[in-house]
């Protein structure tokens, strides 16, 4: 069972809008699409922030 708290991950993200979703016991809790799309021009992706969600 995962421990409660903040968890960080690092993964390569594809170009385009990113979707963030959280499920607990197979039930959707939070679901949103990032505020900024990842684009091919890396200038706009420096220190990328895709969005956030809260209950």
In round numbers, the mean pLDDT is: 76
Write the element-wise H/E pattern from the N-terminal end onward: EE
Structural class: mainly beta
Can you tell me the overall shape?
elongated
Give me the Rg, rounded.
Answer: 13 Å
Helix content: under 10%
Low-confidence stretches: none
Main sheet, how many strands, which sense, barrel?
Answer: 2 strands, antiparallel
Tell me the layout of helices and strands.
Layout: E1 19-24, E2 27-33
Antiparallel strand pairs: 1-2
Summarize the model shown.
This protein has 55 residues and is mostly beta strands. Helix content is 0%, strand content 24%. The protein has a domain at 15-48.
What can you tell me about this protein's structure?
With 55 residues, the protein is mainly β. The protein is 0% helix and 24% strand. It is built from no helices and two strands. A hairpin with a 2-residue loop joins strand 1 and strand 2 (27-33). The model has no long low-confidence stretch (mean pLDDT 76).
